[in-house]
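FORM 7B: Structural annotation worksheet

SECTION A. Query
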Amino acid sequence: MGNEISIFAHRGGPARGPANTLCAFKRAVDDGANGFECDVALTRDGEPVVIHKSFHTDRISKLIQQRGKLGELTWAELRQLKTNGEQIPHLDDVLSFVSQHSVQCFIEPKVTSIALIHRIVSGVSQHDVQKQVRLITFFHRRKLLQAAKQLDAGITTSVILLNPFRSWIKKAEAASADIVVPRWKVFNQLRLLNNLGLDLKRKIEEAHGSGIPVYSGIADDENAIDWLCMLGVKGIFTNNVPLAKTVVSRVDPKSIPLFSVAQKSKSGMVT
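SECTION B. Predicted structure
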């Protein structure tokens, strides 16, 4: 991998289309994103669907709450609901979309369920998108990543870190993760970390030197995106792909540290 910065549409990019819908994913591709992130949960009858947790206060969640919790609805019942005129996708719909486009897809399981991991890994294999899909979740749910690796050692895994102070390399190893994703939502948090004496650039370079690429976000303003570029992250999650692409395009590629392809993580995966 060279010194390019990849851009990923968080939930498909809510600034450009209804979150977690095929419409949003298509728009992200049209906008030039390198890929997108989506959330996956299980219906009562065990079907993996692309939707965020039902207790969040978006329009579709309110519709779900009128009929019961997400886990109490069958796929047949859920597919009758729409969010801003768009149907809720089944995971197979999204994997089929991924198979038809040269994009990466980060899948975040929204429930701590090994059964869901089985369905995700099985679906990835059936659609032959192992090289395009990355499983992503928080460190405290690392057993999901570990389970995925046991099912398919070749699947790419990503761990979201809430605590940036400890060793990212050890955290990645403990989570069986190929990619590290520090969770920085707002620019002020980045400034605060620097003020606390945390050398973020050095930590990123250490991870890259160990073959563990660092992606970050969610970055939706120019200052935050510029900052992440300066730090040398290899990927940025955003709700606004056009803005991120505009900012990244201004960055001098020579100023971004290279990630040596000679370095590999324990899984042997380099992205």
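SECTION C. Observations
The CA atoms of residues 160 and 181 lie 5 Å apart. The radius of gyration is 18 Å.

SECTION D. Sign-off
Analyst initials: ____
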